[in-house]
Amino acid sequence: MSKKTLVLGASLKSNRYSHYAIQRLVANNHDVLAFGLKSGEVSGITIDTEMFPYENLDTVTLYVNPQNQKAYYDYIISLKPKRVIFNPGTENPEFYKLLRENNIDFEVACTLVLLSTNQY
Q1: In whole angstroms, how far apart are CA 95 and each of 9, 68, 113, 115?
Q2: Rg, C-alpha atoms of the chain
């Protein structure tokens, strides 16, 4: 089943995990959206640089370090995703609390591992 996913912190650099996550999500037939600081395209997915009010999101997968996440708290909450995945290096207890208060599930996991083990 396709899960509409926003990759937040998307990168055009092919050595970045967010770049690889977009490729793997597309390869697994998920509906992928991407937000990053530089616009471009990865696996046919356009990286948006504007915070659009995406609808019906299943997952937001984070590739932004905790210090830089604050700027996105309200935005992510406003999207009302079913869950937020905190990839390695993005763990953020302050944000977990806000998500809990807004009834948004979250998990500390690696999107690439979840995909490769069919647990996504």
Answers
A1: 16, 11, 22, 24
A2: 13
